[in-house]
């Protein structure tokens, strides 16, 4: 299970960290209160703040870091049953984790839906609009097109429910870079069997690690990159990890040219 804390080392602010988190830095977006940026009611009146944020997070602006590549390495080794992420920056995909291994619980910019006729489009179709500060419009009915990001009160994607059965099947759970403040995502930490070790890699204790620790819970407190690197070292995967990161860096460099 992952959250915004795995992407702060890539330069993307999280939501709730005091001072640096997005929710304490919303003056530039000119919204009445922080959560308005993800509220449908507000979006229909004024979609501009959301699209300012979308412009910032649109795929292509940021690169994955060791935390993403650690998860990719788990996948390469056939050890990743599923990655449940709350992140909407798409960096899991950029890191090469295939979409079928991913549950993007709070949605994605990879696709977008017309708020009027409900037609679905590739997110790429609207890159030009978003980057050019234009509100994307449906080519069929001219309704406002909203990237498939889950707003407060909206249903989570089908895939969220489809893969819930992963939790009782898992034999290890990593919880990385999330405050576990948002439901229903947060409760999934309690959905693994009680015999299953849960490993938290985060700046502070969160959710059940703070208030209902199990005897086999482990917490590696501090920076996610440091925590992941320590784990990689203990696993003896250092060299593989470096090779993977170097290879992926070259790929991204070539793409940027
Ligand atoms: P939060 O901002 O709530 O929590 C991020 C967590 O990661 C906090 O516990 C931070 O201390 C920790 N953290 C940040 N950077 C770190 C670093 N470099 N090393 C270690 N720990 C670090 O973000 P989420 O839990 O992802 O919804 O927030 C959940 C949801 O709330 C988001 O998906 C978003 C928001 O409303 C939508 O986008 C729809
Ligand atoms: Zn339409």
TrEMBL record:
Reaction(s) this enzyme catalyzes, per UniProt: N(6)-acetyl-L-lysyl-[protein] + NAD(+) + H2O = 2''-O-acetyl-ADP-D-ribose + nicotinamide + L-lysyl-[protein]
UniProt keyword NAD, yes or no: yes
Binding site residues for NAD(+): 4-8, 14-16, 86-89, 178-179, 202-204
Cofactor note: Binds 1 zinc ion per subunit.
Alphabetic keyword roster: Metal-binding, NAD, Transferase, Zinc
Highest taxon listed in the record's lineage: Eukaryota
GO cellular component annotations of the record: nucleus
Positions with a binding annotation for Zn(2+): 114, 117, 138, 141
Cofactors named for this entry: Zn(2+)
Positions in coiled-coil regions: none
Gene Ontology molecular function terms on file: histone deacetylase activity, NAD-dependent; NAD+ binding; zinc ion binding
EC number, UniProt record: 2.3.1.286
Ranges annotated as spanning the membrane: none
Domain Deacetylase sirtuin-type: 1-238
PROSITE patterns: SIRTUIN
Pfam family name, one: SIR2
Active site positions, chain numbering: 106
Function: NAD-dependent protein deacetylase.
Record-stated family: Belongs to the sirtuin family. Class I subfamily.
Protein's recorded name: NAD-dependent protein deacetylase
Natural source organism: Lonchura striata
Gene this protein is translated from: SIRT3
